[in-house]
From TrEMBL:
It comes from the Bacteria. Residues 113-274 form the ORC1/DEAH AAA+ ATPase domain. Pfam families: AAA_22 (PF13401). Transmembrane segments: none annotated. One of its GO terms (molecular function) is ATP hydrolysis activity. This is ORC1/DEAH AAA+ ATPase domain-containing protein. It comes from Inhella inkyongensis.
Length: 421
């Protein structure tokens, strides 16, 4: 939580909380993270190197699309604040709801979308983009039209609960709000074992968010708004493929449309192709999402790497070898990794770590091609049907992809726990 920078007389103080807009190059640098490189490997015991290789889990090498996302996120917040100058009476009419009741002209809705397969880094891309703002919460010592201090919340990120129910989303939003602001504004709601009126809870949260000038709301795992059963029917080829919304989900969709229609909170959604496809099925929803931009996070492909191998995700990852005799990251190794993982970044990292575990269990202190093959056939064996579907580009097999990779968190928990031993 920070205090805003000194703003010029007559300026919109909400814009001060955004800081300066980053250049494309600066955005890529800000969103990337590369851990310290391994040094003096030969002097470090093997069991310690097993722990050091876990640093690779924090490795994040931003592709250009993430810099574009960061700039889109900034522009969404800037555009939203530009029309919500707290010095203007019309802004407070919007906050109170009087503008809607009187039919006053509201600003155009602002929304953006991030789509990608499970494991390519959608959530990380969105969170890193949001964290490029100087602070999530800004404390204003004084505020137009109000007595005393006031809190401005620049962004909030929430995962849509698996149930897709209004009550569960309301609870998630309230919990995230209280964590971010360090307050207990929603204590009475959260003390309840169960929120019975989800839409009423959502409306109260919205009113609080609007009055504190929320800059961007990020809803992750947007596919959870839709029934799993309807998605399974589509994957199995039953029906015409149109996802069927339950009554609660339809209410939620209308609530989100109202949130953007009112011009009160710019919305960023992220999810898998199933979820994004279902969300954008209605033209009205599609138009609103496109106002802030559509961003596709792709899996790694050799045709996109090619001659740029040394400066690519794989090229940089290849520098993190915790053996005395490393294996060159050449075309052969890169193509093998892509083949064994389908180019899914999270699986690439898992393969890299487990290959090291196999290598460090041998007498020879070296990393070999066979270590990656063995790791894929053992530790990553449950993922092979999904990876095969990606290699074959089979629509029938790809339709089951999300079930195989994203719906079983116990697999990833067991994998990461196992590589720590």
């Amino acid at each position: 939580m920070t205090k805003p920078t000194q703003h010029a007389a007559g300026s919109n103080l909400l814009l001060d909380g955004l800081g300066p807009m980053l250049t494309h190059a600066d955005a890529m640098l800000a969103m990337s993270y590369v851990p310290p490189l391994p040094t003096n490997v030969e002097q470090v015991p093997r069991h310690q190197r097993l722990l050091q290789v876990q640093d690779v889990r924090d490795f994040h090498f931003s592709p250009p699309v993430e810099a574009q996302l960061q700039q889109s996120t900034y522009m969404m917040a800037w555009q939203g604040y530009r029309h919500r100058d707290p010095r203007a009476a019309s802004t407070w009419a919007t906050v109170s709801g009087e503008a809607q009741r009187q039919g006053m002209l509201l600003q155009s809705p602002i929304a953006a979308c991030v789509e990608g397969l499970s494991g390519v880094g959608k959530t990380q891309a969105c969170l890193r983009s949001l964290r490029c703002f100087p602070s999530q919460v800004v404390e204003h010592a004084s505020f137009p039209k109000l007595n005393g201090a006031h809190r401005q919340v620049v962004w909030l990120s929430v995962e849509v609960p698996p149930s897709g129910k209004a009550a569960d989303l309301a609870r998630a939003l309230m919990e995230a709000w209280d964590r971010a602001t360090g307050s207990d504004r929603f204590r009475i709601w959260l003390e309840k074992e169960r929120i019975r009126d989800g839409m009423r809870a959502l409306d109260e949260w919205r009113q609080v968010a609007v009055s504190h000038f929320l800059g961007v709301l990020h809803l992750d795992e947007i596919q959870n708004l839709f029934k799993i059963t309807s998605l399974r029917k589509r994957r199995s080829g039953v029906g015409d493929g149109a996802p069927e919304l339950s009554i609660v989900e339809d209410q939620l969709l209308r609530w989100l449309l109202y949130l953007t229609n009112s011009g009160q909170v710019p919305l960023l959604v992220s999810g898998t192709p199933d979820g994004v496809g279902a969300l954008t099925k209605r033209m009205s929803t599609l138009q609103r999402i496109n106002t802030g931009g559509y961003h596709a996070i792709e899996r790694l492909r050799w045709e996109d790497i090619g001659a740029k191998l040394s400066t690519s995700f794989l090229g940089q990852l290849g520098r993190y070898q915790y053996v005395k005799h490393p294996l060159p990251m050449d075309e052969n190794l890169a193509r093998l990794i892509l083949d064994l993982t389908g180019g899914i970044q999270r699986i690439v990292i898992a393969l890299w770590i487990t290959a090291h575990r196999i290598a460090l269990a041998r007498k020879e202190d070296t990393l070999r091609i066979e270590d990656f093959q063995k790791a894929a056939a053992t530790w990553l064996r449950p993922l092979q049907p999904a990876i095969e579907a990606l290699r074959e580009a089979s629509p029938a097999k790809l339709a089951r992809y999300e079930d195989l990779v994203s719906q079983d968190p116990t697999f990833w928990a067991a994998l990461w726990d196992g590589t720590n031993r």
